[in-house]
Design brief:
The chain has 335 residues and is of the alpha/beta class. The chain has helices at residues 27-30, 52-70, 91-97, 113-126, 141-148, 202-221, 237-250, 262-265, 269-272, 281-298, 315-319; strands at residues 3-5, 9-11, 16-25, 40-41, 80-84, 104-106, 132-139, 164-165, 168-176, 182-187, 230-233, 259-261, 278-279, 303-311, 326-334. A 7-stranded mixed β-sheet has the order 1-2-10-15-14-11-12, with helices on both faces. A 6-stranded mixed β-sheet has the order 4-3-9-7-5-6, sandwiched between helices.
Amino acid sequence: MASRLGKSTIVFNNRPAIVGYGSVVGKKEMEGPLSAEFDAHDLDSRFGEKSYEKAESRMQKIAVETALRKCSKSENDIDVIFAGDLLNQCVGSSFGLRGMGIPFSGIYGACSTMTLGLILAALSVDCGAANCAAAVTSSHFCSAERQYRYPLEYGSVRPQSSQWTVTGAGASVLSVGDGKPYIDKACFGKIADLGVKDANNMGAAMAPSAAGTLTEFFEDTSTKPDDYDAIFTGDLGKVGTDLLYILTEQNGFCIRERHLDCGLLIFDRNRQDVHSGGSGCGCSATVLNSYVFHRFEEGRYRNILFMSTGALLSPTSTMQGESIPGIAHLVNIRI
């Protein structure tokens, strides 16, 4: 059963493993550097559906089905699935999974949802509440733009600090399994808000929480950046990454040689006009459930930190002039 280490870190003693994973992306993501990593894609941004929101639900279902197929499990084998997205009331998840017959727990962590779901699934497996649990999340550029910013038809000019919401979904299936990457430790993040109000600069809003979570984990575990093969953040982009380096170095940790940001990996900033990089729930979810787990299979990774970052804003809070709280949840994945 899980135990506590230090101030904020959870240690999983029964090694909840990622036994299956799946990823699905859209056209722009398939034109990026990681195109060979993804399980499925569609050149139609609606994935054959009538709306972008329905397309997002379709992606979630595909991701879960892919993850189940890879570990030779069926929907009936999953005791609980933790799912969330960026849409109001998380309808991308509830509508996408409503026909699968899996016990459902809807969660919201903005772009940190993938790691939040992983922690909850790992806790369920580790304590025996579930023999098999799953985590899935998604985002869609067109649905996110319509909800958080302006309709695409408006043609607004995006500042260089803005990021491109990833059209994609990623799913992980967790159970007790030898020889698979497992979640060794985890750290729920704390909300950090330094007063950033620009909804087109979410990297700056998320970086303080990312630095805080990393620092607390290093201190709890008495480890340092060089102890890990890689340290991933979810979607800080160029602006947020630069700020993260400054903040972590102020705390006494230099992560530059180990750090990779999913928002900088999934797109080519020089060629794809995504400004500061990628963002969205689907950003960390697709990179984790393709690129990262492939590296474990190849033997290139044996011990990493994976931290999804989120900006806890809403259209209402933005219009009311509120600042943007940031959050970052972390898992230590080993094999």
